Amino acid sequence: MTTSLLIDALKSHGHAIKSGHNPTVFACNQLIHLYSKHGLIKDACKVFDEMPDRNVFTWNAIISAHIKSNNLDQSELLFDAAPHRDSVTYNSMLSGYANSEGYETKAFGLFKQMHSVRHDARVDEFSLTRMCNLAAKLRNSLYGKQLHSFMVKTGNDLSGFAVSALVDMYSKSGCFNEAYNAFNGCNHGSVDVVSKNAFVAACFREGNVEMAMEVFTNRGELNDVVSWNTVITGHAQNGLDKNAIELARCMDENGFIWNEHTFTSVLNACSSLKCLSLGKELHARILKQTTINLNSNPFISSGMVDVYCKCGNMKYAESIHSRYGSNNMFSASSMITGYSSQQKVSQARNIFDSLTLKTPVVWSAMFSGYLNCNCCENVFELFHILNQQQTSVVVPDDSVWCSLLGACGMQAVIDPGKQIHGYILRTRIQTNVKTVSSLIDMYSKCGNIQYALRIFKRAEVKDSVMYNVMMSGFAHHGYEQQAFDLFDEMVKDGFTPDEVTFIAILSACRHSGVVKTGEEYFRSMTERYNLTPEIDHYACMIDLYGRANELKQAMEFMRKVPIELDVVILGTFLSACKLHSNLELAHEVEEEVLRIGGESGTRYVQLANVYASEARWDDMGRIRKQMRGNEAGKTAGCSWVHVGSKVHSFTSGDSSRFENESLCSVLQFLIMEMNEKQEIQICS
DNA sequence: GTAGGGTTAG
């Protein structure tokens, strides 16, 4: 039966009842309930208004009807006006308050009132579980514990409703052990599926996948669609995306039909895996399944958009976004991130500008997008726009600070970085560990390793990213020993080194030329930490051998790299050949260099320079000729300084500016400062 | 004879 047919049927039903000579109060109450259930609040009100007699059921029905239609103020008016009130009236109102944003205080007030005077509305299991849900929503375990005590005292702690509410409250407010006790303290034989699902979700929240699956599997006959969705989501949230997909297929095989929650989680796992074929399969499935469509739920359309964005298929993403998700913030932020990851920053900005209402998620996506595209000036410009917003709804959050600090680091401009740091300190806003890492990185990249270290030492909460940032800072500033010490400290403090840690530590090795140490770290990467070296790690090792004039080993190592060599690796090797005047080995890789790196002019120039440095003009000429044939060109790398509002850039060997006396003296000063390596210690 | 409560997605 379609919705309109249903509504017609309801209305004629209502008409029949009302046209009867004496519709009973009971019949009218039923009608109010029916209308409300189908979203026909106006019809429900009409019945209520026209009733000559009403009883407590009537008042409860109309109050609930208004709560259901999200009109809390109207239900409040009726609650106050009601001549009869019982515990159902109170509990309905309590539910309304507890579920709505901004009415939490009223919920507490009403609950307190129930404790005191009314003898017709005592606190019961309904009220207690509702308050438990509120404590869960507010993540307030202290209040939750008080409720729990009261529940035990009044014998209201053992039903399925009570157990699920307690498990959920404890888990969401970060007390897994209490959730465990609440679940295991009840009689296991009578555990119902909702409590079980709540506890499985609690285990996943705690990261205990093993326990979650044990509970899920135990008494599997209880499992329902929510149970399956819980384990699928749980795996996806714990980074086990492949398992999440497998479980979803398993759910199919067990005869459970995917619902909106299932699709949302599977889409989420699919976008993490960046698997386009699976994405297309899911898309087809959504189009085919009659109970679901892209329009039925914003989670589904934005999830689908996100999958296509992560897979780089912006055409498909755009078609779904423009049709179903143009006002959805999650869909929009996926689009912004998707376009930025392809360096299409103006398309990203178009999506951003098309939104009338911008949430912090969208702002943060645009900030990161600009940073990703190296558009530092746009990062600052966007911050300016953010500050000019009339509404104070969006305040800069950690992700905004990270983007701004990232832009400062990228441009090596310390002053705006210091201003942001100062702002954070002055306003005493709470910052998370990511912002602290960004501050460390900013100071390090702007040349002030002392400040970076000071912030690192003072950070109360550290994570492995923060260690990596600090370690890279040490490596770049030539404090190799400190980098090695920090590596040990990181391990001692219980953090596991990851791929980025090894980039930092191998960089430290190559800068200090400690081949043996580098080899040991590289070995430990696979043998001890079970990590797979990536192209950058191999590049570090080749550079390490190359700088130490162990070109034969470099060559040998290069031949053993299990992935295809890239231009960076070959370029690194060529630099070493030039440094140690080894033309023979340069010759050996020449063909490969030009095959892989031929598209950009960089490698041609590099190769030509190797020959030129040894006055091998014929070889150099040969390469230059090929270069012209390929229309290759090389953009010169440069350094720059900010003086006032001007940026002065310098390329290697450019002496045209040295006529400027003040510039010369600044340069001398800088050289002096660089030579005086400052003493720093990492242990306080 | 009516009405109020729990679990899974940003």
TrEMBL record:
Top-rank taxon, per record: Eukaryota
Keyword Kinase annotated: no
Keyword set, alphabetical order: Repeat
PROSITE patterns: PPR (PS51375)
Pfam families: E_motif, PPR, PPR_2
GO MF, one example: RNA binding
Repeat (PPR) residue spans along the chain: 24-58, 86-121, 224-258, 463-497
InterPro entries assigned to the protein according to its UniProt record, in alphabetical order: E_motif (IPR046848), PPR_At4g14850-like_plant (IPR046960), PPR_rpt (IPR002885), TPR-like_helical_dom_sf (IPR011990)
GO process annotations (BP): RNA modification
Protein name: Pentatricopeptide repeat-containing protein
Species whose genome carries this gene: Deinandra increscens subsp. villosa
